Amino acid sequence: MTGTEWAIRAHEFSNCNCSYGCPCQFNGLPTQGHCRAVVGFQIHLGNHGATRLDGLKVAGMFVWPGPIHEGHGEAALIIDQRADEAQRGALLRILSGQDTEPGATIFNVFASTLEKVHDPIFADIAFEIDIDRRRAKLTIPGYVESRGEPILNPVTGAEHRVRIDSPNGFEFRLAEVGRGWSKTQQPMRMDLADSYGHFCELNLCQNGVIH
């Protein structure tokens, strides 16, 4: 791998169209045969070389006509409008999988499956997340409305808690599983309802997940 060294520590919420648990997390095929997802995260500490990324927010929309590994995907990335020119360039390099060891991060892996990537969007991103309580809210006026909540026991209505432990993963080591609702307007339209969601710490660098 050549390029600028980078690292981010962030909190992430991801909502896709699969059923609770998401077969893709276990190398299975997506519930409906295709994949649609909305992702948002806020960086608490981050850098790309000398460029600091602390406090910036990012979101993405993704669509694949079949399983992700079969490719032909479409994506749109939304960057915090507060980012300056250097920060925007740095985030786009990270999110597009550049300056990264091949296959080491979700950004690099997803980038290799995309056929169409829309021009980056710079917008006001409102993002709130509580990983332990399995709650999140992502609002980008004109683009995205997304929220995450716990799964509820169908008999008692009590909040159900289950986690995914992925010691060799390229996105997270541990994620709280819940459910989500997401609607997007442009440049890609999606409507996800009561489907898989996860809440996690996103700790990544050019070599993969930071332990």
Descriptive notes:
The chain is mainly beta and 211 residues long. It has one domain (6-209). 8% of the residues lie in helices and 49% in strands. The protein has two helices and 16 strands. It has helices at 85-95, 106-111; strands at residues 6-16, 35-48, 51-52, 57-64, 73-80, 114-117, 121-123, 126-130, 135-140, 144-149, 151-152, 159-160, 163-165, 174-184, 190-205, 208-209. The strands form two sheets. Strands 1, 2, 3, 4, 5, 6, 7, 8, 9, 10, 13, 14, 15 and 16 form a 14-stranded mixed beta sheet that branches. The chain has a two-stranded antiparallel sheet with strand order 11-12. Strand 2 (35-48) and strand 3 form a beta hairpin. The two termini are 20 Å apart.
Q: How are the SSEs ordered, and which strands pair?
A:
Blueprint (H helix, E strand, L loop, with lengths): L5 E11 L18 E14 L2 E2 L4 E8 L8 E8 L4 H11 L10 H6 L2 E4 L3 E3 L2 E5 L4 E6 L3 E6 L1 E2 L6 E2 L2 E3 L8 E11 L5 E16 L2 E2 L2
Parallel strand pairs: 5-6, 5-7
Antiparallel strand pairs: 1-2, 1-15, 2-3, 2-4, 4-5, 8-9, 9-10, 10-14, 11-12, 13-14, 14-15, 15-16
Question: Which features does this protein show?
Answer:
211 residues, 8% helix, 2 helices, two-stranded antiparallel ribbon, mainly beta, globular
Describe, in short, the structure shown.
With about 210 residues, the chain is mainly β.
Helical run tally: 2
- Taking all Cα atoms into account, the compactness measure Rg is 16 Å
Q: Identify the quaternary structure here.
A: single chain
Low-confidence stretches: none
Helix content: under 10%
**Sheet with most strands:** 14 strands, mixed
β-strand amount: over 45%
Number of strands: 16
**What is the averaged pLDDT score?**
96
Which class of secondary structure composition applies to the elements? mainly beta
Terminus-to-terminus distance: 20 Å
Order of helices and strands: EEEEEHHEEEEEEEEEEE
Number of domains: 1
